[in-house]
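Structure in, sequence out. Go:
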């Protein structure tokens, strides 16, 4: 048990750093206007928007990251299940492709690529993964 304790302590110390590192990466991408970056992170829902029904349908909502940056999530619900009962204040984890815009950016490709040419993304809400 004595040898396990330092390992668990180190693991717990690194866990929040991962989220912090993702926030820093997203902030840098926003500041330098970078796009096409695969990024993992999490945020708090500050607004649930109407679905975008032009072309492929997307569930849309805005997250506020720990850094204060906002991020629009555009989740393709033609290719992945929608997050049911999503509400303001909920936490959502994500993995997808970041695209810069002047409002904080857009996270998309939060689903599996049916053709296998793009990294698979996902959203996680209440410990359920939507991909």
């Amino acid at each position: 048990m004595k040898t396990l304790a330092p390992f668990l302590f180190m693991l717990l110390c690194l866990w929040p750093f991962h989220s912090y590192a993702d926030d820093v990466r997203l902030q840098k991408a926003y500041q330098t206007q970078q796009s096409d970056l695969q990024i993992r992170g999490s945020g708090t829902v500050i607004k649930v928007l109407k679905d975008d029904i032009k072309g492929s349908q997307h569930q849309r909502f805005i997250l506020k990251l720990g850094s204060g940056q906002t991020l629009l999530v555009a989740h393709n619900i033609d290719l992945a299940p929608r997050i049911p009962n999503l509400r303001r204040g909920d936490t959502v984890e994500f993995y997808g492709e970041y695209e810069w815009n002047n409002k904080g950016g857009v996270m998309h490709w939060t689903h599996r690529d049916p053709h296998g040419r793009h990294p698979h993304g996902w959203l996680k809400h209440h410990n359920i993964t939507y991909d």
